[in-house]
Prior knowledge:
- The chain is mainly beta and about 290 residues long.
- It has a single domain, classed as Jelly Rolls, CATH 2.60.120.10.
- β2 and β3 form a beta hairpin.
- The longest helix has 12 residues.
- It is globular, with a radius of gyration of 18 Å.
- It binds manganese (II) ion.
- Manganese (II) ion binds next to β5 and β10.
- The site of manganese (II) ion has 5 residues, from β5 and β10.
Amino acid sequence: MTTRSIEVVVPPREPHYVGDGFRVHNFIPGGYRLDMKRMDPFIMLDYNSKFYFPPTDTPRGVSVHPHRGFETVTIAYHGKVAHHDSSGGGGVIAEGDVQWMTAASGILHKEYHEENFSKAGGDFQMVQLWVNLPAKDKMSTPKYQAITNDAMAKYTLAHNAGTIEVIAGEYENLKGSASTFTPLYLMNAKLNKGGKAAFDFPAHFNTGLLVIEGSVKVNGEETVPTNHFVLFENDGTSFNIEASENAVVLILSGEPLNEPIAAHGPFVMNTHQEIIQAMQDFHGGKFGHLED
Length: 292
Ligand code: MN
């Protein structure tokens, strides 16, 4: 095991709204070297840091829109999101849950705050990640994986340090339930004050973490506050975090696809021609139908 160094600690950018329901700091693709290639296969990361939405009878969110060529992973920390899609699917992503949606050849969906959450108002905190698909799988059949918190693999750390919730990949041989097209790790470290956890991923896997709650000291050297992202170098395999206070940290690491990226809004393909095709298919109704 060799130590993986911190490349840069990235502060949250000014938030912007996606629709009227998601007040996000965009980390990827963004500044601080975080273009769509640097964290390949993670090509987009929007983070709604904890934010209070007042009660409303009209749920806030994003109306009908398409996706093609990748997967969207929604991780709910506070609040609830309801989603509906053009294949007739739908559901609620509640606190602690993860929705892994393979858009692949294309879906239409809408994402709104869940009705009762909207009526009551409350804190809302969520991550949406886009995981790119390899060229050979971009036009595969869309699917969902709903990973509820009670069904999530949880590793209990020694010395009352806390828990690792494994979404994808594995931690100390405990496997997460998400099936992925390429090798990657995604997990939440929920640490008690003073709790420590170590992670070991292949050096060429692009690796980062986002501090969701509290603050952590990384590799015993740098304290990283809430809502900051750590981009790691590819110079070693292992790093550790120690909670300076009770903390929740999202850990992500994936094998880069190293394929060309042609991106246009909600379509991420390999060539410009495939983007043109996606737009034609979308306008031609080939993504199905969904009412606003
Ligand atoms: Mn979407």
